[in-house]
Design a protein that fits this description.
The protein is built from 21 helices and 7 strands. It is mainly α and 541 residues long. The strands form 3 sheets. A 3-stranded antiparallel sheet has the order 3-4-5. The chain has a two-stranded antiparallel ribbon with strand order 1-2. The chain is extended.
């Protein structure tokens, strides 16, 4: 190939495409590093070749980063024409071609909306974009169940169990028991002897029995590599799900000396390099430290000579370190099969990381903090990882209206911190019982809170002035008058506010001056003005 390029047999170099090809390569590598499937990347590369071939043969415009969107739309028009007129291509196939190439270009161009939506190609499948409460809950439950399954595997695959007799019996939390034969077939799956050849069958049965006995007696990496790899894979998935480290990072972590440094979230994991503690590799919660420590001790016992220095090594069929490229992630098909046998839904690395990110985003409600914690740009976090949740939107809507809808505000002055009314401990016998319906009841509710503002002080003084009319009308029975209890409560509040600081004292003074000027708080103005001819008493503090 190099000689053909030097000889010019492949044509002139297309310099204008260098930046586009570089960004395509970078976006696909980032997808694989994040735990994406290599099979998906290979399919996209195949469709990209079709697009580039069409650009070379049919496009009248040179393909480059600046013109790739326009060329892509023309190519999608050509695919649609071929499907509807030429009849050499199904429309759903044409959409599949366009969606795969568009998916790559969306990552290259950093588009917020899919590029294929700007074409005339359409898919017949229309799925919901938002996650329903049932589906959202199910996804979290599956992730938690998968995490418990991984922990059960780690508990059952101890050093003693791995080097012990076969099969390994692992009791799961869902009540099932897993049998692991570590390379041997279960006796229940062995074929019965052939009655037509009794002598040969008997000899074959004896050889098989001897081979099984030899296999069980040989307690080395050669016979135990599958269960060792299973424990390592389970530990790696636990680390990815707990810390948010992606697959590309986790399988390349080195087995250095680890140091746990307390942080606000739990512990920062640092490595020892060049006589100093190096940068933070990842962060874990404090509850996971015991699990991680236990794995480090287990790994040291299983690999006393440390085969390749990786935190999560893998063994080949002959018991030697598996030969694979440094950027190639390990195979976890065995873990998929075991989880299916255990009746637990398998959660892949990308879904695991997405669940971790969305869980933290909901707990913190802070995209900036979540993006920093999970090592993402905020735009990438929202565009790629965040999943719209109907349940979360409903909760946020209820919280918003509970805070800003005046019809849901407490009837009395101040604010409310609870749902069910509860009387204060020292409530007078004549006071109105809290019921979330009468303003006086709010004054004697344990959930009522004063607001540190001049407007609230004005509201309290105006409400006390309103209650004075009621107090005058019931002066014949002063001791049994609920209005007097409310007035005493408000007076005590105003006295406390006035004595708390000089600024708040000015608020009380200003509120009383406004009452003298017949300027009442809007919440009580209408009711006060309805008592125009009733004697007034401001109850000066």
């Amino acid at each position: 190939m190099d000689s053909m390029i030097e000889a010019g047999k492949l044509g002139r170099p297309l310099i204008e495409r260098i930046e586009l090809v570089r960004l395509i390569r970078e976006s696909l590598l980032n997808y694989v590093d994040g735990g994406g499937r290599r099979k998906t990347v290979l399919g996209c590369i195949e469709k990209l070749r079709l697009f580039l071939r069409w650009a070379d043969e049919s496009s009248t415009q040179a393909l480059s980063l600046a013109t790739v969107e326009e060329c892509y739309r023309h190519w999608c028009d050509a695919l649609l024409h071929r499907a509807r007129v030429g009849r050499g291509l199904l429309e759903r196939t044409a959409y599949g071609y366009g969606s795969k190439v568009g998916w790559v270009l969306d990552r290259v161009l950093g588009r917020a909306t899919p590029l294929i939506k700007s074409t005339r190609l359409r898919s017949r499948k229309r799925g919901p974009r938002a996650v329903s409460p049932t589906t959202d809950k199910q996804n979290l439950e599956e992730a938690f169940a998968f995490g418990r399954f991984l922990l059960d595997l780690a508990d059952g695959l101890s050093v003693e169990a791995i080097w012990g007799p076969l099969p390994l019996q692992i009791l799961m939390r869902n009540g099932k028991t897993l049998e692991l034969w570590s390379g041997l077939k279960s006796p229940n799956t062995l074929k019965p002897p052939n009655p037509k050849w009794p002598a040969q069958s008997r000899q074959a049965e004896q050889r098989a029995a001897q081979n099984r006995a030899d296999w069980q007696a040989d307690r080395t990496y050669r016979t135990r590599y599958s269960v060792i790899n299973l424990r390592i894979t389970a530990e790696m998935f636990m680390l990815m799900g707990q810390s948010g480290v992606n697959l590309a990072q986790s399988h390349q972590l080195r087995m250095d000396q680890w140091r746990f440094k307390p942080s606000s979230q739990g512990y920062e994991i640092r490595t020892y390099k060049h006589r100093r503690w190096g940068p933070v590799v990842f962060q874990i919660y404090s509850e996971y430290r015991e699990v991680f420590d236990r794995y480090l001790h287990w790994r040291k016992a299983i690999f006393p000579e440390d085969p390749d220095g990786l935190l999560f090594p893998s063994l080949g069929k002959n018991g030697t370190p598996a030969q694979r490229r440094s950027d190639a992630p390990p195979n976890f098909k065995t873990l998929q099969k075991i989880s299916k046998r255990a009746g637990v839904a398998f959660v892949g690395p990308q879904a695991l990381r997405s669940t971790n990110v969305n869980w933290m985003l909901r707990r913190t409600a802070d995209p900036d903090l979540t993006a920093e914690e999970k090592q993402h740009a905020k735009q990438t976090l929202i565009r790629v990882y965040e999943k719209p949740s109907l349940q979360r939107a409903m909760v946020q809507t209820q919280v918003y209206w509970a805070e800003y809808d005046p019809t849901m505000a407490p009837p009395g002055p101040g604010t409310c911190t609870g749902k069910n009314p509860h009387p204060v401990a020292d409530m007078p016998a004549t006071a109105v019982q809290p019921d979330c319906m009468t303003p006086s009841g709010c004054l004697f509710c344990d959930h009522q809170r004063d607001i540190d503002s001049q407007d609230h002080v004005w509201s309290l003084a105006s409400f006390r002035f309103l209650k004075s009319f009621e107090e005058v009308e019931a002066k014949s029975n002063m001791n049994q008058n609920p209005a007097q209890a409310a007035i005493n409560r408000i007076t005590a509040k105003l006295n406390f506010i006035e004595a708390s600081s000089s600024e708040r004292a000015q608020w009380v003074k200003e509120a009383l001056l406004r009452l003298d000027e017949e300027r009442y708080h809007p919440a009580w103005k209408g009711l006060i003005e309805s008592h125009v001819k009733t004697p007034r008493n401001h109850y000066e503090t």
